[in-house]
Design goal:
By secondary structure, the protein is α+β, with helices and mostly antiparallel strands. It is about 20% helix and about 10% strand. About 15% of the residues are buried.
Length: about 300
């Protein structure tokens, strides 16, 4: 009988607690959620729309009210009444030859500057992922991190090809600052391909190859260099140039960039390692073949810096 009494006491206490929680729940204000899917986004309004100056763009109908389908002039001239012209550069975005409202909302939007959708979604309605290589496994970090095409491209027009914001390699050094530093260093030897533009060797959006290369190193190098230079071996007869691990960095494949840096080097012929200093003392072979050329023990392996 005592155990039944204890059970009923606990049960009634639990019910009382539930009633109290429910009462407090109704009395307290509802929580405010910051989730964009719940909170309606703030709309950015086009000033003529916000100020109800509809006749700035629309013709008046017979009753004197703005006609929603007729305008005082055609786009883009209509927009250039207020906005600075965007079509004066050499390279003009084809979308500019149509209507500004292909990309921008005429009245209001949740995305600056009155865009109809996010930049990456907007651009890929015309520029397909497959055509740009954006679906390939190695992706340019500029796309992964910012997800914005306008980080590199001007959306309206540009004096540079592909509507880039600057010519390459200058554009690329905005992010790859170490490359920019070496590009302006008078004490380094610069691979001439760098001046031709980074996109000659690297895919700007995505690639199947490391470092966004358009081809693997040896194939890529011989799009410019004569492959005959390695026939029979290089830099001397019988010396391998591929098909085995790099002798210093075993995790890498032996290739042109085992000995030559692809961008800059303080050494002639953009050689990766300076063999004219101690402990190598002028023997280029000793960098990789210390055990054969010199006496053990060898020095620590030199740094690999691209």
């Amino acid at each position: 009988m005592k155990s039944l009494s204890n059970f009923l006491s606990i049960r009634y206490a639990g019910i009382s607690l539930m009633v109290l929680i429910l009462a407090l729940g109704f009395a307290l204000p509802l929580p405010v959620f910051a989730d964009a899917a719940i909170t309606p986004p703030v709309k950015i309004q086009h000033p003529p729309f916000a100020e109800a100056k509809c006749l700035s763009c629309h013709k008046a109908a017979a009753d004197g009210k703005p006609s929603p389908k007729t305008f005082i002039m055609n786009q883009p001239d209509l927009c250039y009444q207020c906005h600075e012209r965007k079509d004066k550069n050499t390279v003009i975005h084809p979308a500019m030859k149509g209507k500004c409202t292909a990309c921008h909302s005429a009245h209001e939007s949740a995305i600056k500057p009155l865009l109809k959708s996010k930049v990456e979604d907007m651009c890929t309605t015309c520029h397909l992922h497959d055509d740009l290589g954006m679906d390939l496994p190695i992706k340019h970090l500029a796309l992964v991190m910012s997800k914005s095409c306008v980080r590199c491209h001007n959306p309206h027009s540009s004096p540079y090809p592909k509507m880039l914001k600057a010519v390459t390699p200058i554009l690329c050094t905005y992010c790859h600052t170490d490359m920019g530093r070496d590009l302006n260093n008078e004490n380094v030897h610069i691979h001439p391909a760098v001046y031709l533009g980074c996109e000659n060797c690297h895919a700007p959006h995505g690639s199947e190859n490391p470092k966004l290369l358009k081809q693997m190193p040896n194939d890529l190098c011989f799009t410019c260099h004569d492959k005959k230079m390695i026939d029979g071996g290089h830099p001397k007869a019988g010396h391998p140039t591929s098909g085995q691990p790099d002798p210093i960095y075993k995790e890498k494949d032996l290739s042109c960039i085992s000995c030559h840096k692809p961008h800059f080097s303080p050494n002639k012929k953009v050689l990766r390692y300076n063999f004219n200093t101690a402990p190598y003392d002028g023997s280029i072979c000793s960098v990789c073949h210390w055990q054969v050329v010199m006496s053990p023990p060898g020095p620590p392996r030199p740094d690999w810096n691209d």
